[in-house]
Amino acid sequence: MDNFEExxxxxxxxxxxxxxxxxxxxxxxxxxSDLAAQDFRGEVEILVADGGSTDGSxxxxxxxxxxxxxxxxxxxxxxRLVAHGLNSCVARATGDxxxxxxxxxxxxxxxLRRSAIASEETGAWTxxxxxxxxxxxxxxxxxxxxxxxxxxxxxxxxxxxxxxVEVDTVYLGAFRPEAFRRAGLxxxxxxDNHDEEFNIRVRQAGGRVVSDPAVRxxxxxxxxxxxxxxxxxxxxxxKVPVMLKHRRIVTMRSLAPMxxxxxxxxxAPAALRFPRARRMLAAELAVYAVAASAxxxxxxxxxxxxxxxxxxxxxxxxxxxxxxxxxxxxxxxRAIARPTTQTQRSDTPARR
Length: 352
Known about the structure:
There is one protein chain. 47% of the residues lie in helices and 14% in strands. By secondary structure, it is an alpha/beta fold. The chain has two domains: 208 residues, Alpha-Beta Complex (Spore Coat Polysaccharide Biosynthesis Protein SpsA, Chain A); 105 residues, no CATH class. Strands 1, 2, 3, 4, 5, 6, 7, 8 and 9 form a nine-stranded mixed sheet that branches. Helix 8 runs parallel beside helix 11, helix 9 crosses helix 11 and helix 10 packs across helix 11. The two termini are 30 Å apart. The N terminus and C terminus are likely disordered.
């Protein structure tokens, strides 16, 4: 998918920035600062869907925006779901390009401009870029190092490269309004995978999803093992409704964590009685440990981190994979138990 013909379309004179938010008081001032520093020369409207924040996020957002000279429209998102909030913003958006931002990320001054240029020059309905990680604590830096590695497994194909390529999905995304007219809105039933599922429909409707390495966002990863586990459990859980909705495996890579966990779980009891099973289990775990160590070390070197961080990076990998696998197993269990019942918010994992 590295080669594709560019299809220039109408210029982007107005951008609608859409942002879901809930309890982000510690991030909104940086977000407003990033928005105020954007060098896009056209018009920009900012729409924020708040999911009932209780930490003063809304007031702080308004105060920061007034101080920066920005006009921000705040919409209510009583469902507290990211997809619902985004859909409310999209319904109000009037821009030639709809750019989704997240409160947990940092955006260089050229983020909007480069998104607009990529949209104009490629004609893609969805534009994304490189996801770079910036941890604030030792554990957060370890998570960032693991995420930046191919062994991390979550969208790693979009973190490297020097040219525009067509991809399955992107982090955040900048969308032509036509994408929503032709593919529909985000599906709240897809939970944390609403963006991936939406981009599947974009491609099915005839649009393209393009990653441009010139578009860069800096993401702040979770800073505790518990949060990492919860996040990746949710990713795995909501991979199932995406696959069921489209009746196909989205990527074979997504099945690798569950395959690893399943084979280990099957071999473990057998290893108590059978030497061959014991050797197979030892070999599988040894290969995994070597891979985690090698990829962790490579990420440490590439990111110029301290070597003392390596043990945490190595431990993050199984946290990723086991949480994802357990989430997928739980998603499959619920799908089998209630094949005709839609997943309800009250009994599903916490959202991002």
